[in-house]
Design brief:
Blueprint: H1 15-29, H2 41-48, H3 52-64, E1 68-71, E2 75-78, E3 101-102, H4 111-125, H5 130-134, H6 143-156, E4 166-169, H7 171-183, E5 189-193, H8 198-206, E6 210-214, E7 216-217, E8 220-221, H9 223-233, E9 237-240, H10 254-267, E10 270-274, E11 295-300, E12 312-315, H11 321-332, H12 337-349, H13 351-373, E13 379-380, E14 387-391, H14 398-407, E15 410-411, E16 413-414, E17 428-432, H15 439-454
Parallel strand pairs: 3-15, 5-6, 5-9, 9-10, 10-11
Antiparallel strand pairs: 1-2, 4-12, 7-8, 11-12, 13-14, 14-17, 16-17
Helix pairs in contact: 1-3, 2-3, 3-15, 4-12, 6-12, 7-8, 7-11, 9-10, 13-15
């Protein structure tokens, strides 16, 4: 690693840009040849007397210009001036869609699981057990896979279950579909939070259900509104995300979880609890632990281990176990055994725990970056979430801010995507922090959003 320390004494403007300019000059002059490993963010920050965040922004700017590239676990390296090495403050106007920072999806950083997959598949191939993994599995999944699910949920989600109560699904989305099909019929009312995941909205439409949104506040679903909706609509089920709600990133307090369970019990409503983000919290107990007899608990490895593995776990109340298994058979017959075998091996050898812990660490670092770049006044929700919920200040409208962000090279999601039925959506946006592969890319995206918030010149561009 080089001891490169740039001279910033005669460089005007923001420190991060001055550092990127100095880096560009030293690459062009040959002082920093291609392949040179640069100092760590912390080391360079110490030498220059600036914050680590400043160095992160500087490296992100240099990466945007094509001067450097990061390799997870190895460091940051000079790549040479593949693009124009000079500052280009208007480059975001010319950035193509392919080069945009995509912050629309919530998914884990999974380079470690990518590397582990080859070794695991090799071990499976030589295990002598391939026949059972490519044959039809039982509708609820193979016994070993259900037992591993119990271990995982106990360790990562604080849920106690027996293997007989678990169904293996192809991710949480499939788990939600199975649960809805088991408890509701076309035309039935199913309650959700007023803002809910787009996948749940599409499931409701596909299954012919009438979704009705229930009001939210900073602590999640509001009990008074839930009680009123149950009394007025006689719903069959309530779908909810009490831990790091999607999209608002709220966490429901324990008292409200108990109150929610009591209301649903009083009106005979089945709770569908989506806990895919629960592994990110250390003290929030799922509603399933309060009311296991009326709660269908749903989680997956998509947010904690690998998005494309598509392994989900559903815990069924005893009274609904047969209905859920019948719905699983109708919708997918049985979840593929091969991905579940990979997940089981990673759970048993501890790799899944390491991936989840690495995701929590990386997510915390990205949240810290976000809260250092974006104004605190717009950030809502819990800092453990893999996404941000930004309440836009006047005069921004959500559709104008989404368009302006795209114009600046960042793709985010407006609140209207999450609104249930014809409910009005707030002027807010969701920003996924973990889809970009590097922190530098995250900083680039967040900086563009911060710049847009600070200069709302296009906030009224939809007005004619």
């Amino acid at each position: 690693m080089t001891n490169w320390t740039p001279d910033l004494s005669d460089r005007p403007g923001p420190r991060y840009r001055a550092i990127a300019d100095a880096l560009a000059d030293d690459v062009a002059s040959g002082r920093l040849p291609a392949g040179t490993r640069l100092p760590t963010h912390r080391d360079l920050a110490y030498r220059l007397g600036v914050t680590v965040g400043t160095i992160t922004r500087a490296y992100a700017e240099a990466e945007r210009r094509g001067l450097i590239g990061g390799e997870v676990g190895r460091g940051t390296f000079v790549q040479g001036p593949r693009f124009n090495p000079q500052p280009d403050p208007l480059s975001w106007q010319r950035r193509t869609e392919a080069a945009a920072v995509n912050m629309t999806v919530i998914k884990p950083e999974q380079q470690a699981s990518e590397r582990a997959l080859a070794a695991t598949l090799t071990a499976i191939a030589t295990s002598g057990n391939l026949a059972s993994l490519i044959d039809y599995a039982p509708h609820a999944g193979l016994p070993a896979h259900r037992a591993a699910a119990v271990q995982w949920m106990a360790r990562r989600h604080r849920v106690s279950a027996s293997p007989d109560s678990v169904l293996i699904t192809t991710g949480a989305q499939n788990g939600i579909a199975v649960a809805l099909a088991a408890v509701a019929r076309p035309g039935d009312v199913v309650l959700t939070e007023r803002l809910t995941a787009y996948g749940t909205r599409t499931l409701g439409a596909t299954l012919g259900l009438h979704l009705e949104g229930v009001a939210l506040d900073d602590h999640g679903l509001m009990p008074d509104a839930l009680d009123a909706a149950c009394r007025r609509l006689a719903p069959k089920a309530l779908y909810m995300v009490p831990s790091l709600q999607n999209p608002t990133a709220s966490v429901m307090p324990a008292e409200r979880r108990a109150e929610t369970a009591a209301i649903c019990r009083r009106y005979g409503v089945t709770i569908l609890e989506d806990d895919v983000f629960g592994f990110l919290l250390t003290d929030a107990k799922p509603i399933q632990t309060i009311a296991p007899d009326i709660t269908i608990y749903i989680t997956s490895l998509s947010k904690s281990v690998a998005a494309g593995l598509r392994v989900g776990y559903v815990v069924a109340p005893p009274a609904l176990s047969a209905q859920l298994e019948a719905a699983a058979r109708a919708l997918h017959y049985a979840a593929p055994a091969l991905p579940a075998e990979v997940a089981t091996r990673w759970i048993q050898d501890g790799q899944a725990d390491r991936f989840a812990e690495a995701e929590r660490t990386e997510n915390a670092a990205r949240q810290e970056l976000a809260r250092g770049i974006l104004p605190a006044s717009v950030i809502c929700g819990d800092p453990a979430a893999q996404h941000l919920w930004l309440a836009l200040p006047e005069p921004w409208r959500r559709e104008d801010f989404v368009a302006e962000a795209k114009r600046r090279g960042v793709v985010i999601t407006g609140a209207d995507i999450f609104a249930v039925g014809r409910a009005s959506a707030p002027h807010a946006v969701r920003v996924g922090l973990c889809m970009p592969r590097t922190r530098e890319e995250v900083v680039r995206g967040l900086t563009a959003l911060a710049d847009a918030l600070a200069s709302p010149v296009s906030a009224s561009m939809s007005i004619v």
